[in-house]
């Protein structure tokens, strides 16, 4: 096995804010035997230079295309907004580089399909940030279900709040309310959580949905503006899993004063509840409760302590680190254990089926 550290170049890294600095950098730092972040490219050369200085990186690339073509980079990490994924991932793949892209993979199904096809042609490791799938709690839950804790799964149901897509936002997040950007409540919190659900319970056999926009405007608190919103803030989905189990979900914009995340799995022998503070299953601390047989009340089903060994204490970089650990193994050993572009395409297909179903329903 090749134990040389994997050299990482990040596109879209700023030291003072944003996802890459709070999630990717501490995740990669927790795996020092596997990865070394050596370069950055941002929207301007000046920004890249400032970031390289702040993180003590040897390379500040003038453009993302300089980064992907550099022999110093083994793995390109794309953490920019969704509308830029397609161009940057395409460039990295055409340069023959391994690529890790934030979810959603593309701005819609068509882009995801093209990127998945190109990645297969290039034969590189191409992964996507569906980190809920590999979170310790989700892997523990997967084992519980596989070991028959609830018996045969009869049904599963979800309630989740998006956090965003409510009445207010800040300027940095206002793009989420423009559906054309591809970063919506359907694609981000709901999509991430569906990746986790599929990891535990398997794929869908059929699905239908209804998406509604109940708020027409959003107030941007730090600028004082009020602007139109085009992204739906209510998502209702029901369907059947390939196992035959019934599925239902309701995601709501903003935050509730009551339940913000509740996932139930009900079976012939028992029941499980998974709770969190927000409907982003990929970034909230999940708690698992269960009861079976003669139990009369739920009790904690905590993952074994060893599942957290060597991982960051904070849930956000911890889950991202779990993805990177699999990426390292995939690059070195030719495995395909990390969430792949092929996995991402299937998730895009699921979300597209929900959206198309909603469009048909609205016309009836």
Overview of the structural elements:
Residues 136-276 form the Gal80p-like C-terminal domain. It holds the Pfam family Gal80p_C-like. Residues 7-129 form the Gfo/Idh/MocA-like oxidoreductase N-terminal domain. The protein has 364 residues and is an alpha/beta fold. The protein folds into two domains: 6-130 and 315-339, NAD(P)-binding Rossmann-like Domain (Rossmann fold, 3-Layer(aba) Sandwich), CATH 3.40.50; 133-304 and 350-356, 2-Layer Sandwich (Dihydrodipicolinate Reductase, domain 2), CATH 3.30.360.10. Helices cover 33% and strands 24% of the residues. The protein is built from nine helices and 17 strands. Strand 14 (261-267) and strand 15 (270-275) form a beta hairpin. Helix 1 packs across helix 8 (315-333) and helix 5 runs antiparallel to helix 9 (341-363). The longest helix is centred in the last third of the chain and has 23 residues, at 341-363. It is globular, with a radius of gyration of 20 Å. The mean pLDDT is 97.
Q: How many separate helices?
A: 9
User: What is the highest CATH level, the class of the largest domain?
Assistant: Alpha Beta
Structure summary, number of beta strands: 17
| Rg for CA atoms | 20 Å
Q: Can you give the helix content as a percent range?
A: 25-40%
**What is the general shape?**
globular
- Average pLDDT rating: 97
What distinguishing features does this structure have?
364 residues, alpha/beta, Rossmann fold, Dihydrodipicolinate Reductase, domain 2, 2 domains, 9 helices, 17 strands, Gal80p-like_C, Gfo/Idh/MocA family oxidoreductase, NAD(P)-bd_dom_sf, Gfo/Idh/MocA_oxidoreduct
